Amino acid sequence: MKFYMTPGSCSTGIHILLEELDKAFEAYIVNLPAGDHFKPDYVAINPKSTIPTLVRDDGSSLTEVQAIAYWLGRAHPRARLLPEDVEGETRVIETLAFVVGTVHGQGFARIFATPTFTRNEADHEAVRAFGRELVEKCFGVLNDQLGVKDYVAGAFSIADPILFYVEFWADKTKIPLPANLQAHYKRMLARPAVQRVLREEGYNLASLGASA
Ligand SMILES: N[C@@H](CCC(=O)N[C@@H](CS)C(=O)NCC(=O)O)C(=O)O
């Protein structure tokens, strides 16, 4: 498989899943600031110009974090990355949708991609502040849903690396994580696959989780 990613972005969640699966894949870095995602070669595999993209062994492209995560879980049942019961699987999808759609798409996007929410530069500070407020509110919900469980679905599942990437962004942007999410973040940072991915993406592990 070919995995198109940008270090430190939402693709880190999928990168961790691929590493946890211990399946061979080639990683290609898409340089977003340089506009690589708008170049014809990339648009040919992902006309949405987003990362991540996974090109599977049959040559077909898969986009959207939730869809890639779900496919990786379903297509590799022996890895047990998806609960087998309907309720468990549904709750995992509920978490994926909330993290990617709301925490990332509505919250962190306002902080990292402020000009896409307003053309008026005078509003940028207010947009970023609203993004931060929303992220903090969402973290409260996710914290209560996680409770004292080790992982989102009890056992490790596709939901955990996806929750991890927004916890990682919180660490980088100094947004405080409530206690249960802090414990989850630290638990994830202790996983060998997570450590391998963060090292490959150029992070110094000693500087992460300092506030967690
Ligand atoms: N809904 C997409 C969103 C992914 C997304 O927002 N990726 C960002 C990076 S974290 C991106 O591709 N940005 C491209 C850009 O900024 O033009 C998904 O789930 O894959």
TrEMBL record:
A Pfam family that the UniProt record links to this protein: GST_N_2
InterPro entries given in the database record: Glutathione-S-Trfase_C_sf, Glutathione_S-Trfase, Glutathione_S-Trfase_N, Thioredoxin-like_sf
Gene3D superfamilies: 1.20.1050.10, Glutaredoxin
Chain ranges of the GST N-terminal domain: 9-74
Superkingdom of the organism of origin: Bacteria
SUPFAM superfamilies tied to this protein: GST C-terminal domain-like, Thioredoxin-like
Record PANTHER family: GLUTATHIONE S-TRANSFERASE GSTA, GLUTATHIONE S-TRANSFERASE-RELATED
Protein name: Glutathione S-transferase family protein
